Structures are given as C-alpha cells and as structure tokens.
Amino acid sequence: MISSLMSGRISSRYGVKFVLNIALGVCGVTLILMPFAHNILLITFLSICFVAGIAFAVPLVIAKVNMVVYGNRGFFLSVNTFILFLGTAIAPILSIYLTSLNNFTSMFVIISSIAFLAFLASLFLPSDQQTTY
Q1: Which of 56, 64, 60 lies closest to 1 in space, CA to CA?
Q2: What pTM does this model have?
Q3: Coil, helix or strand at residue 30
Q4: Which of 10, 13, 37, 85 is 20 to 30 A from 127, alpha carbon to alpha carbon?
Q5: What's residue 6's pLDDT?
Q6: Residues 31, 110: contact at Cβ < 8 Å?
Q7: Which residues have a Cβ under 8 Å from the Cβ of 85 and sit 6 or more positions away?
Q8: Where are the domains of the chain?
Q9: Any stretches that span the bilayer, and where are they (predicted)?
Q10: Rounded CA gap, 77 and 82, in Å?
C-alpha cells in the first residue's frame, strides 16, 4: 500500500508510461523467477516485488487514463474499474484450472504470460504529454 502512495511522486519524476512499463515488467519477471526459488527469503522477496509492481500499476493506469482522455473521463474510469473487477472475478476460475495442473512451474508461466501481455499492451500507450483541446 505504501508503494501505491509513492507511485505518483515517482511517475511525476520519470513519467507515467516509463514507471508503468517498469512495474508491469517487474511483475512478469518475478512470476517467472518464483518457481525456481527454493529459499523462503527469496520467495518472500519476489512476492513483495510482485505486489509492489501491482500496487504501482493500478494508480498509474488511472493517471494515464486521466492524461490521455479529454472528454468523458468518468466513463473511461468506470471501464477501468469494470476491467479490474472482471480480473478479480476471473482469478478464482483461473486458479481452479491452474491447481489442476501437475507442474507448478507451468502455473507461474501461465500467470506470467498474462503479466507480459499487460506489459506489451502498455508499450503501445501514447506518450506522457497531455494534449490540450
């Protein structure tokens, strides 16, 4: 929760798109590394890095919507909230499917592929310059 409070200050210094790309990249990399970690301290560190990446990404997506969209921001923020809640609704279904797999490494690979898809989508976002109309 503390990292989500710091995301605004860090994004104002380095740019929203850059920090969002880093946050989503950290999420994907930590999910790839997690099944290969056999030390509880390393697993804890990777888990904290993953959660920090998500905590950075969520407010930055809202900030990016605020920067890019000129009119009808409320609608696009409600679409963002809908997609966020859709992800939380699909997560239990996905976890039931993933727990049926025999290899836990494949579970992390599937989840990290979703994170890398989000990272690839963030690469195509427009730059941080806010257009004035």
Answers
A1: 56
A2: 0.83
A3: helix
A4: 85
A5: 84
A6: no
A7: none
A8: 2-123
A9: 14-34, 40-63, 75-98, 104-125
A10: 9
